[in-house]
UniProtKB/TrEMBL annotation:
Molecular function via GO: catalytic activity
Organism of origin: Candidatus Planktophila lacus
Protein name: Pimeloyl-ACP methyl ester carboxylesterase
Gene3D superfamilies: alpha/beta hydrolase (3.40.50.1820)
Pfam families per record: Abhydrolase_1
Length: 287
C-alpha cells in the first residue's frame, strides 16, 4: 500500500524526504537506495515488511527529489541524517539495509548506538582502500561514469541526462539480460525500481554530485570500526560493483558475513533473492 511522502527538517535546515510502510514502532528497518533510485523504488519491500509486522522506511539522500542537496557530502553525513530522523520518529533500535550506492551509507549507520545490524546488497568498498582494484571487472559504462565524476561532475550529469532519451532499463541493467536477469525482470520489484530511477531523473540532478562525492572521497569513518552483525550480499557476476568489493567488506568488517551468489548480476541478486535479503534484515532486528 503506497503511503504519502513525508518531510523532516534537519538541524542544518535541509529537508529530508522519507516514506514509511504505515506501521509505527520503536524498531525499524531503514532502506538506503541505490544510485538514481527514488524512495518509491522500495515499495514492494515496504509492503513485504508491513506484511511481516515490521516497521520500515525509505529516505532520500541529499539531492534526491525532495531532499535538499549537501555539497561535498561524505558517507558519514548520511548516517548523521538518519540519526536525526530516527530520533524524530522515536526509533530506538534499527537495522539499515543498503542497495548498491546505498550500501556504504547503511554501513555508516552501524556506528550508531541504536544499530543492531547492517545489510548490504552489491555495496561499494572504500575507493581509498581498494585503489585501482576498485575498477577490476567493472563494465565500461561504470568506468566512464567514475572517470566523468573525477574529471568534471557536469560531464557525468550530461551522461545521466542521455539516459532519459533511451530505455532506462538498458542503462541501469544493461541491454543484454542473462537468464537470471530475465527471471528478475519478470518480477514486480524490477519495474518498480526502474520506474523510480526515471522519477529521480525527472526531478533534477543535485544527487549526482552528492552521491559521487561520497563514493570517491574517504567515507569519514573506518568500516573496520563497525562491530554490529553485518550481512554482505554480493553477486558473483556483478559488473557494476564487482566481487572484490563484497569480499573486502566481509574480510575487513569484524562481524560481517558474506552471502555470495553465483550466476547473479548487480540488480539480479537484489530481485531474485529479495525475500532472503529482507529476512536477513528481520533476523538481525529481532535477534
Amino acid at each position: 500500500m503506497t503511503q504519502t511522502r513525508q518531510n523532516f527538517t534537519l538541524s542544518d535546515g535541509r529537508n529530508l524526504e522519507y516514506l514509511t510502510n504505515g506501521l509505527k514502532s520503536e524498531s525499524a528497518v531503514i532502506l538506503h537506495a541505490g544510485t538514481t533510485q527514488d524512495i518509491a523504488g522500495w515499495q514492494t519491500w515496504l509492503d513485504y515488511f508491513a506484511a511481516k509486522g515490521v516497521f520500515a522506511l525509505s529516505f532520500g539522500r541529499s539531492g534526491y527529489a525532495g531532499s535538499t542537496k549537501q555539497p561535498g557530502r561524505l558517507t558519514i553525513d548520511v548516517a548523521k541524517d538518519i540519526a536525526e530522523l530516527s530520533q524524530h520518529l522515536g526509533i530506538t533500535k534499527f537495522v539499515n539495509l543498503g542497495l548498491s550506492g546505498g550500501g556504504q551509507h547503511a554501513i555508516a549507520t552501524g556506528l550508531d548506538p541504536r544499530s543492531v545490524g547492517v545489510v548490504t546488497v552489491g555495496s561499494l568498498a572504500p575507493f581509498a582502500e581498494l585503489g585501482e582494484r576498485f575498477y577490476d571487472g567493472m563494465q565500461q559504462a561504470d568506468l566512464d561514469e567514475y572517470a566523468d565524476a573525477l574529471r568534471d561532475i557536469n560531464d557525468l550529469i550530461k551522461r545521466f541526462q542521455k539516459w532519459q532519451d533511451g530505455n532506462v532499463a538498458d542503462s541501469v541493467a544493461g541491454a543484454e539480460l542473462s537468464e537470471r536477469d530475465q527471471l528478475a525482470a519478470s518480477k514486480p520489484t524490477w519495474k518498480v525500481v526502474l520506474d523510480s530511477c526515471a522519477f529521480t531523473m525527472g526531478k533534477g540532478w543535485d544527487w549526482v554530485a552528492d552521491d559521487y562525492s561520497s563514493y570517491l572521497q574517504p567515507w569519514g569513518f573506518d568500516p573496520r570500526d563497525v562491530k554490529v552483525p553485518t550481512v554482505i550480499w554480493q553477486a558473483e557476476l556483478d559488473k557494476n560493483v564487482p566481487v572484490q568489493h563484497g569480499k573486502w567488506l566481509s574480510e575487513n568488517m569484524p562481524s560481517a558475513r558474506l552471502e555470495l551468489r553465483a550466476g547473479e548480476s548487480h540488480l539480479g541478486i537484489y530481485v531474485n533473492y529479495e525475500e532472503e535479503i529482507m529476512q536477513s534484515a528481520i533476523a538481525l532486528l529481532t535477534a
